[in-house]
Design brief:
The chain has 384 residues and is α+β, with helices and mostly antiparallel strands. It contains 13 helices and eight strands.
C-alpha cells in the first residue's frame, strides 16, 4: 500500500477492500464490545485515518467530505467500526483547532494517533491554579476509547463549555458498555481524578473556528475556516448512511432469485418497501453531499455560514438520521422470522441504527428545532 499515491480513488478502493473483512469480524466485534486490535491495525495500515489529520503532521491533502464517504462505506460492513473510524478521524481534525503546542503533543511523534471523546460536561469540575487547571470528573459514551492514546472531554467554566485534551496516562476507562446496538464501539466511561491541565490543552467550544481562528492560521486548510460546530456531527451521520446501505444490500441479496408463484420477490409489498427504503437512503446521501458542498464553497470564499444556514445544517443532520432510521425499519419489518437470528446481519443493522439515532442531536425535536426558531425570526436558544 505504501507505494501507491493516496488520491481519493485509491482511498475509497482501500475502504471497499476492508468491507468484506469487517463483515466477517462483525460478530466478534460485538462479542468483544470494542474494535478488535487487528481491525484497528488494518485501519491504520490503510492510511484512511490520515484524511482527518492536519497536513502539517502527515495528514492527506484531500477533502474533508472524503472521510464521510469512507465512513459510509465501512458502515456497510460493520457499523461499530465505521462509528469509531469516523470519530477517530474527526477528532484528528478537531485537534487542529487547539494551540500548536497541544497539537505537537498529540501528533509530534506520529500521525497514527487516535483520540476518543466525551464532549458533554458529564459530572466534572475544573479549578484554576497558579500554573494551569485541575480537572476531575466522570464522562460517559467515549466511543473507541480502548484504542485511543488521548481523550477530549467537556467541562463547564464561567465563560461556557470548554473541551480538554487529556493523555492516556491521566485517565481511567471504566467498562459500562453493555448495550443492544453499536456494541462494538466500546463507548465506555472516562474517569479523571484531580489531573493537572495546562492552558494550551483547553479549547473554547463556541469560539473554535469562529472568533478563534487558530486552526486556519496554523494550517491554511479550508476545513479550519469554518466554525467547528458546523462540521461536527457529520462524522456520525456517515455511519448511519452506511448502515442503511448495508441493510438494503443484504435485504436485496437475500431475496434476489426468489421469484415465482408465491415467492417473496414477486410481492408488491416487498417491492414497494425496497423502493421506499432506497429512495430514503438516496435522499439522505444527496442531502449530506449538498450541505457539505455548500459549506466548503463558503469556506473557500472565506465566508461564514449565516445563523439560518448553521441551523439548517444542524437540522439536516437530524433529518438524515431519521431518513436512515426509516429506511432500515421499513426493510426489517419485512425481513420475516429469519431476520431476528443472531447469524443474520439484518438484525445487527436494525439494532445499530436504533442506537445511532439515540443521540439528542439526531432527534428532530432537538436537532431540528433551532431552524424553525430562526426561520420564524427568533434568536436560537440552543447550540447550532
Amino acid at each position: 500500500m505504501a507505494d501507491q499515491v493516496l488520491v481519493p480513488e485509491e482511498l475509497l478502493r482501500r475502504a471497499s477492500q476492508l468491507v468484506p473483512l469487517l463483515k466477517e469480524r462483525a460478530a466478534r466485534t460485538e462479542e468483544l464490545r470494542r474494535i478488535p486490535d487487528d481491525t484497528v491495525q488494518d485501519l491504520l495500515s490503510s492510511k484512511l485515518h490520515l484524511i482527518g489529520v492536519p497536513q502539517l503532521f502527515g495528514g492527506l491533502d484531500v477533502n474533508y467530505g472524503l472521510m464521510l464517504e469512507v465512513g459510509a462505506l465501512l458502515g456497510t460492513g460493520c457499523a461499530s467500526t465505521s462509528w469509531c473510524y469516523s470519530i477517530w478521524s474527526a477528532h484528528s481534525w478537531l485537534v487542529g483547532y487547539w494551540p500548536l503546542e497541544a497539537q505537537e503533543e498529540v501528533f509530534g511523534n506520529s500521525p497514527d494517533i487516535l483520540t476518543s471523546s466525551s464532549l458533554n460536561a458529564g459530572k466534572s469540575a475544573m479549578e484554576k491554579t497558579t500554573s494551569g487547571f485541575r480537572l476531575s470528573g466522570r464522562w460517559e459514551f467515549s466511543s473507541g476509547c480502548d484504542a485511543a492514546q488521548w481523550v477530549m472531554v467537556g467541562t463547564d467554566v464561567p465563560e461556557g463549555r470548554v473541551w480538554v485534551l487529556v493523555p492516556r496516562s491521566d485517565y481511567e476507562i471504566v467498562d459500562t458498555w453493555f448495550v443492544s446496538g453499536l456494541k462494538g464501539t466500546g463507548s465506555k466511561d472516562i474517569v479523571i481524578k484531580d489531573v493537572f491541565v495546562p492552558q494550551h490543552r483547553i479549547l473554547d467550544r463556541d469560539r473554535g473556528g469562529d472568533e478563534e481562528r487558530n486552526g486556519w492560521e496554523i494550517h491554511q486548510q479550508d476545513r479550519y475556516r469554518l466554525p467547528l460546530l458546523v462540521l461536527l456531527g457529520w462524522d456520525l451521520v456517515a455511519p448511519m448512511i452506511g448502515i442503511a446501505q448495508g441493510m438494503i444490500e443484504e435485504f436485496t441479496a437475500g431475496l434476489t432469485g426468489t421469484s415465482g408463484p408465491g415467492r417473496t420477490a414477486d410481492s408488491d409489498a416487498v417491492q414497494l418497501r425496497l423502493s421506499q427504503a432506497s429512495g430514503e437512503l438516496d435522499a439522505a446521501r444527496a442531502l449530506m453531499r449538498s450541505d457539505l458542498r455548500e459549506t466548503f464553497e463558503k469556506a473557500q470564499k472565506g465566508e461564514t455560514p449565516t445563523t439560518l444556514e448553521r441551523s439548517r445544517f444542524r437540522r439536516d443532520k437530524a433529518f438524515i438520521a431519521q431518513l436512515c432510521l426509516s429506511s432500515v425499519n421499513r426493510l426489517f419489518e419485512f425481513s420475516g422470522g429469519h431476520g431476528i437470528f443472531d447469524s443474520e446481519s439484518l438484525q445487527r443493522y436494525h439494532r445499530d441504527i436504533q442506537a445511532a439515532v439515540r443521540r439528542d442531536g439526531f432527534i428532530m425535536e432537538i436537532g431540528g428545532l433551532q431552524y424553525g426558531r430562526v426561520a420564524l425570526g427568533l434568536d436560537p436558544d440552543g447550540r447550532i
